[in-house]
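Posting for a labmate who doesn't have an account.
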Amino acid sequence: MTRRRRRLVLLICCMSLLIVSLDNTIVNVALPSLGHDLRAPISGLQWTVDAYTLTLASLLMLAGSTADRIGRRRTFQTGLVVFTAGSLLCSLAPSLGWLVAARIVQAVGGSMLNPVAMSIITNTFTDRRERAQAIGVWGGVTGISMALGPVVGGLLTDTVNWRAIFWINVPIGLLALFLTWRFVPESKAPSARRLDPAGQVLVIVLLGTLTYAIIEGPAAGPGVSAACFVVAAAALAALVVWELRRPEPLIDMRFFRSAPFSGAAVMAVSGFAGLGAFLFLNTLYLQSHRGLSALAAGLCTLPVAAITTIVGPLSGRLVGTRGPRVPSVVAGVCLAVAGALLSQVTLTTPLPLLLGIYVIFGVGFGMLNPPITNTAVSGMPLAQAGVAAAVASTSRQVGQSLGVAIAGSMASSAAAYRVNALYGLIVLAVALLTTGRWARATAERTAARLTEGPQVTLSQG
């Protein structure tokens, strides 16, 4: 492929990342308007966000395996069609139930885009230096989407209505679909991993029942809530047992013998739970309580996006020069401080002070992402690094879903932000525990086991 065509492939992949990432942030700022129009309770707004992130979390691993098996371009094109159709259905939804269903359709398509796009980039840019530059551009698009989402969403909500936030995906999706057909070559893995339908079902049951118990538990009663928690626990136990018996599991449980890998998963869940809660609570506080317009509320989140975009590369350099401990510790401290300060915010808190707290949160979140990915693949064999990174990405989506669910079920935003401070403390504690000499030794032992051959079944001891 010529250099020009490789860059075009990168542009196409970045277009898919843009619309999927935008959807994680653009919807939040429209929640008050959407809730008023569809007469949705708080739990309905939670499902509007979580139906998307939960479906993404459940299907990311399956989408990657499917693309390796049937073709990355074919899977990518299918994802674009489904995501674009889902976006159109969201804009036409006559009720909350239809909107949540359309959000699930959106996420099914979205699950086929980002992990598959990364595989396309990896196979397109075979030179190590070019590949690093391409991945750098890819990461920059995430920051751009985080900055654009609330502002674009606020502008469209104020000038048109909340349905317009989904229209923006349609022309971008159709253009990306045409360009993919025209310029992206097909590729497959030499030996694709076998599908694991039972493991996939158990993941869906685990995440679905756990989230339902948190969101609907207060209204459904303690009996329903307890039953959902029991089902979730049973699904988790069955998933662990089943995956340990599989020669090619959906999630290789041996990874979790590595303390750095397990730590990265816990930090991803905790950090992104904080992000999900922050985005959800922030838009309700600024619009419903302080009376700001959707656009003004979106502009207030710009400090978070700007500082995250600036701090992210600095964190990456720190990881490269001094390891993941320093940025992870800074992330934990900043997230904990921001959560504690936000729990004290009132309706009369001066806006400059509020924005200053947002900057602290942005520093913490910006510092968190690079060490999560680095720590997840730390010491892993090269052949397993992609799967390990995919588990870390799934952990991010799970965390964001749980953050929204827990925040919306709290009695007050102050209590929810105190939980956010707890997320930061968890990140801090796990960072200190899983980045030392002992943790590195567990990663080395795990890597040695992973290179020995197929996973040992439970019956073999």
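Reply:
Got it, the structure tokens are right above this. Confidence is low (pLDDT under 50) at residues 455-461.
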